[in-house]
Amino acid sequence: MDKIVIRGGTPLNGAIPIGGAKNAALPLMAAALLSEQPLRLSNLPHLADISTMAHLLGEMGVSIAMEGDAPGGGNMGRVFALNASGLSSTEAPYELVRRMRASVLVLGPLVAREGHARVSLPGGCAIGTRPVDLHLKALQAMGAEIELTEGYIEARAPNGLKGGHVLFPNVTVGGTENILMAACLAKGDTVISNAAREPEVTDLAHCLVAMGAKIEGIGTDTLKVQGVTTLHGAEHSVVPDRIEMGSYAVAAAVTGGDVVLKGGRLELMEAVANVLKSAGVAVSQETDGVRITRNNGALKGFDVMTEPYPGFPTDMQAQMMVLASVADGASMITETIFENRYMHVPELVRMGANINVHGSSAIVRGVKKLSGAQVMATDLRASSSLVLAGLVAEGETVINRVYHLDRGYERLEEKLAACGADILRVRENG
Ligand code: UD1
To answer: What Å distances lie between residue 135 and 131, 144, 153, 417, CA to CA?
Structure first.
């Protein structure tokens, strides 16, 4: 398994290209299942999760033509034309769902178009139990019959789904996406209340509209969908990855650097930008991207709580904890979305951070320095926090289990090295 080796202490200076959002690309790829005509997606990131989704769709009979990189060069994403005209299967097997929970996003589109789907239950994951009960209840409210057998969700709607009122008791990104896609081909109108408003949900909604869907309330917590009988082909460019932006913003901040996140859009990361500003970091929208600068003064502690969008994203909690670890004073970080998302804490403590977790909150007392160590993480964003800690730590940090990073960060070591970081990947066989 590959490792990443970092020698910390160099301020980052330069430009980092921001790719398309993984969490937008995955539902967008699943949306191809809704139409017999091709969906052409550009600005897709080169990531392991995208390959897993492509593999899953391929197993169902979706043909995928890779059309090379988008205009602007190899750094700005690839282009897939997905054609689901001849579906041969409506099953998502355990083997693939186990690798990537987002595989469950094929459920809504398959039931809506084919009247049937058999999708493995995702089971637990490193950051908590993460059930899909809300997806299933919502599909039932739209007339689907759901059975759970042998670890699989068996969903049937032989006469098609019907519109209805879906009220999510708590905000679910994947649940909103699954039901939004399903509602596009349901008979009649569907109202989704307490819908997720994440930019990735909005991006999906815009793509569905380009495919002929009738959706009102895009970007709000109430989505109204008027069902249509078919959707047609479309072209869509994936929204920039706000978590990639936020992660590199923290990298620039903790190292005391000056970095432009090229292609980034500040309005996608307002909550993160506000925390950075309160910590003493300058954040501004420039013509070619978002600029992050910290060249004078110490970082200041802050309090932050994760919330659904437009609140502070849970996917940035681990990275922001690194910033708190080296800021002056105490910070309080509260995680409200996932119950077990402090797996990075013991590793950061091994690097010298002073962090105490009490229930869902972590008190972080800033220290003068972190020191390099051998570390590993159990999920994607936790791994990214260890990279950030390595960039600011004295000495050498070795990050094991790099495959987590490869699920969500494209060419991470290349992008950081181009801004002066001393970072390299050590390839190991086996
Ligand atoms: C998506 C993101 C993930 C992000 C998360 C929250 C993708 C591919 N992943 O995950 O990176 O961290 O949003 O912003 O887009 N829940 C239930 N029952 C359900 C569904 C969810 O109890 O049926 C709970 C979850 O356990 C969690 C909370 O609701 O506590 C939010 O989960 P959700 O928004 O659904 O996350 P994902 O869509 O899985």
So the answer is: 9, 11, 11, 41
Q: CA-CA distance, 387 to 287, in Å (whole number)?
A: 28
Q: Is residue 27 lining ligand 1, measured as CB closer than 6 Å?
A: no
Q: Is any atom of ligand 1 closer than 6 Å to the C-beta of 102?
A: yes
DSSP string, 31-59: HGGGBSS-EEEEEE---HHHHHHHHHHHH
Task: Answer whether 180's CB lies under 8 Å from 156's CB.
Answer: no
CA of 176 from ligand 1 middle (Å) equals 10
Output the pLDDT for position 127: 52
Q: Is 183 exposed, middle or buried (0-12, 13-18, 19+ CB in 10 A)?
A: buried
Q: What is the 3-state secondary structure (H, E, C) of 60-88?
A: CCCEEEEEEECCCCHHHCEEEEEECCCCC
Closest of 365, 316, 366, 364 to residue 341, by C-alpha:
316
Helical H runs in 170-240? 173-184, 199-210
Tokens read off for 103: 């595989």
The atom of ligand 1 lying closest to the CA of 338 is 30
**pLDDT digit string (tens) for 127-178?**
556 789 999 999 999 999 999 998 899 999 999 999 999 999 999 999 999 9
Give CA–CA dist 408/384, Å, rounded: 9
Is residue 199 lining ligand 1, measured as CB closer than 6 Å? no
Scored b (16 or more CB within 10 A) or e, 382-391 reads: bbbbbbbbbb
Residue 74 has pLDDT above 60, yes or no: no
Cα 212 to ligand 1 centre (Å):
27
Q: Rounded to two decimals, what is the model's pTM?
A: 0.96
From CA 355, how far away is CA 333, in angstroms rounded?
A: 10
Task: Answer whether 211's CB lies under 8 Å from 140's CB.
Answer: no
Which residue in 354, 389, 360, 356 sits closest to 372, CA to CA? 389
Could you tell me which of 320, 315, 290 has the C-alpha nearest to residue 408? Answer: 315
Question: Cβ(157) to ligand 1 under 6 A?
Answer: no
> What would the pLDDT profile of 362-379 be if each residue is shown by its tens digit?
999 999 999 999 998 888
